[in-house]
């Protein structure tokens, strides 16, 4: 199981074994499921950065690939069309190089300070990409965590340990049905 993503996947500011991919691994182990979680999160990475390193991260087989990208594109106010195109290329490459893999695209959101039109367009691109590429769309990664000071680190953007537990549950709700034999 390969987790591709940003600092939210990498677990920025948390102990290495506290990031949600490692917490997912503990859930997998507790259920004796035959998966090994690999955290390929990279802090600060945009969708273009993920596209550039796909050759490296797809070197090994993966039965399940979770794609969490776009958040940094949104933070930088990058063109929604450009981000959508790049994420589309990522999903196409994964389909071509790992056709056996079940792919999950994680819904991300743009900050509201970029305007309502940008925020709506950014939100809307994820369901469209999931449908076009035939992948599972996971609801917003930070649902129930974003904007809640008690669940975030001092930067207000990255979950603390308690917030990361909530993120883990958000991810698990989507993954668990995909992992059953």
Describe this structure in words.
The chain has 181 residues and is α/β, with parallel strands linked by helices. The protein is 47% helix and 11% strand. The chain has helices at residues 7-10, 20-30, 47-52, 54-57, 71-75, 80-97, 116-133, 161-179, and strands spanning 2-5, 38-41, 64-67, 102-106, 136-138. The protein has a five-stranded parallel beta sheet with strand order 2-1-3-4-5, with helices on both faces. Helix 7 (116-133) links the parallel strand 4 and strand 5 (136-138). Helix 6 runs parallel beside helix 7. The protein is globular, with a radius of gyration of 15 Å. The two termini are 15 Å apart. The relative contact order is 0.17. The model has no long low-confidence stretch (mean pLDDT 96).
Task: Please tag this protein with its features.
alpha/beta, 181 residues, five-stranded parallel β-sheet
Strand coverage percent: 5-15%
What strand line-up does the widest sheet have?
2-1-3-4-5
Order of helices and strands: EHHEHHEHHEHEH
Helices, by number, come to 8
Structural class: alpha/beta
Radius of gyration: 15 Å
Distance between the termini: 15 Å
The largest sheet is: 5 strands, parallel
Instruction: Give the low-confidence spans.
Output: none
Mean pLDDT: 96
Q: What overall form do the CA principal axes indicate?
A: globular
Q: Report the strand count.
A: 5
Question: Helicity range of the residues?
Answer: 40-55%
